[in-house]
Amino acid sequence: MTDFVYPVLLCGGSGTRLWPLSRKAFPKQFARLTGEESLFQGAARRLAGAGFAAPVVITGNDFRFIVVEQLAAIQTGPQAILIEPEGRNTAPAVLAVALHLQKHEPKALMLVAPSDHVVPDDAAFRAAVQAAVPTALSGALVTFGITPTRPETGYGYLELAGGADPRATTPQPLARFVEKPDADRAARMLAEGRYLWNAGIFLFTADTLIRAFETHAPDVLAPVRRAVEAATMDLSFTRLDASAWATVPDISIDYAIMEKASNLAVMPFTAGWSDLGGWDAVWQEAGPDDAGNVASAHATAIGCEGSLLRSESDRIELVGIGLTDIIAVATTDAVLVAHKSQSQRVKDAVSALKAQGRMQATAFPTDHRPWGMFESLVVGARFQVKRIVVNPGASLSLQSHHHRSEHWIVVQGTARVTVDKEVRLLTENQSVYIPLGAIHRMENPGKVPMILIEVQTGSYLGEDDIIRYEDVYARGQGAKG
After folding, report:
1. What is the pTM of this model?
2. Domain locations in the chain?
3. β-sheet with 294-295: strand ranges across
4. What is the DSSP-derived secondary structure letter of residue 50?
5. Tens digit of pLDDT for each residue in 348-380?
6. How many CB atoms lie within 10 A of CB 163?
7. Does domain 5-269 have CATH number 3.90.550.10?
8. 96: closest CA among 189, 229, 185?
9. Could you name the CATH architecture of 366-470?
10. Which of 182, 216, 238, 244 has its CA 20 to 30 A from that of 475?
């Protein structure tokens, strides 16, 4: 395989279909849904090895440090991380990466893939990519089509041209893209045997894609080019220009390019794939037992059939008795119970919670930060108790608060604490009081994670009550910066 295959990982999303585990603040690509690694980490591993460059990731501002942390955990260094000022769908995102790569390598082959899919056979997928490289180098826009296993109504389809082989090991001519069908149409397409699922995975050179935008979507090309040309560096991140990006149309790459272009080919892939588009898909990919059940470490199924029981906390034991085709998912702050046939309606539940103003609709009980994480244990009218974990060598910003005071108790490791002019070390079972308005900072000078319990008291306990004076992560002001 050529050395010029650049994995491009699309890393946005709102995370509504796998609520409550996946939410806007922590979408599904970062969650461990089918193994010990997140879907994002699995995608990065899949698109690595001989013939692959380091990945380029395009993501949103709130996820930038999660991307870095999860890549570091699998010892993968990104070539670049591009930050979208706001989500504008896949066409602008992919084009921005192409323009970024064009500066250094116009002929670079881009392998564009969502970061929240499951491919059971990584080696087979890499072989399919290798087989598609010559076609992409010849100037084609190659899309990957998955051999359908059922009359699925949740996916778009790819119709092969006459005489094409749906199980070929080389790219085939593509007739057209087909919108998500109804159940009857999906059954007919499955029976006809010349349709593949549209996986949203593409292979093409940067200059081929840019020429396609020049021809079919110049209204997208112009503002994205301005956003890339005016991009700025922020630590190791490339921030696309916000004012230019605000004028970019919100459009998918299918609508902008693929449904209009004539230089298309499809690479059939027969070795299995799932976009994990609902809890029913998670149940299927997790490998049900002889009774059709999937139960997590803290879930027990008694007399159940065809059900998914999943607890995300070691403090919550989930027990199902006599259930059939039920999905039950428990986190520390929310519980979902649904019939498996209704799993696609989870997004309706999220909409209902948003309308009611429930924080569980979008916020996650565990908040990931560049220095570590925290979770709220107890929240009252004028107090909050948090568990805070600070990574070795990490440091919170030098900050103060207008509305709250804090009491820190170290329960693991060592903390270097700054309170106004005083700097001191705290070890396990030691504590310190942070008065309202005091300028303070917490650091972990040790080699192991430092854990402390924080008790906040005051009239307002929101995360946006932070004034930052110094921050090694350059987050600016606000809750996350």
Report:
1. 0.88
2. 5-269, 279-353, 366-470
3. 294-295, 308-311, 326-330, 335-339
4. T
5. 999 999 999 998 999 888 888 889 999 988 888
6. 8
7. yes
8. 229
9. Sandwich (2.60)
10. 244
